[in-house]
Amino acid sequence: LVSRDNHPERSTVRVGGVPIGPGTVTLIAGPCAVETPQQTLEAAQMARAAGATLLRGGAYKPRTSPYAFQGLGEAGLRILADVREQTGLPIVTEVVDAHDVELVASYADMLQVGTRNAQNFALLQAVGGIGKPVMLKRGMNATIEEWLMAAEYIAQRGNLDIVLCERGIRTFETATRNTLDVSAVPVAQRLSHLPVIIDPSHSGGHRDLVLPLTRAAIAVGADGVIIDVHPHPEQALCDGPQALVDGDLDELARVMREFPPLL
Ligand code: PEP
């Protein structure tokens, strides 16, 4: 279903009216985690100022440590819905448990399945049946073939509104959190008709890498990027070191403008 063999035209997925697909480079930006109404609104305003047309933000956070901030849950979803109301930006947010799919989908414009759940087949089937677009991150240990098969689980349930997101894979390299596999973009686009975007924030894990990796994403033909921004990253409850700050936004907007999409 997701193979390009039976569907030669590359697909465009619309999220609250915003296209992700060939001919555009969609900027999705926002906080890694929803922490407070004020922080989420400020991050959304930063995102919009940089040219973002979709707001990201996690209310359910899949953390490596059980002692780390796990997200605000439904209270976080309510904050996101309020901020959507105030800014007009449709919401992309993660769901980590098949039991929460209905609840998260009742607030979200697009559901995100994260790298740690990329082969959670019950979750993939649940998001496939809920009638909302899905962003499927690549498992950090998954081959491209395994990633596309994971997408197939969603598609099998009747949902072809899937955006693939390359977010770095595990290698021997320790200078970055994960190694951004830029080759995955043209390879996945050759094998599948689905749009492919890149997450330069979670792959690199460092603020300084976000703009160079964004340039790489656009140069290699990605259909979009998803980027963390935070008004006060030093106080962030999750992944502060990778969040862009106010001072980075002009440069981000310039990068997005100056690197037109490959057609
Ligand atoms: C995220 O985007 O909030 C996230 C946790 O990303 P990943 O699943 O790629 O680590």
UniProtKB/TrEMBL annotation:
Keywords attached to this entry: Transferase
Q: Which GO terms describe its biological process?
A: aromatic amino acid family biosynthetic process
One GO MF term attached to the UniProt entry: aldehyde-lyase activity
Protein name, as recorded: 3-deoxy-D-arabinoheptulosonate-7-phosphate synthase
What domain of life is recorded for the organism? Bacteria
Q: Where is the DAHP synthetase I/KDSA domain?
A: 17-258
Range covered out of full length? 71 to 333 of 345
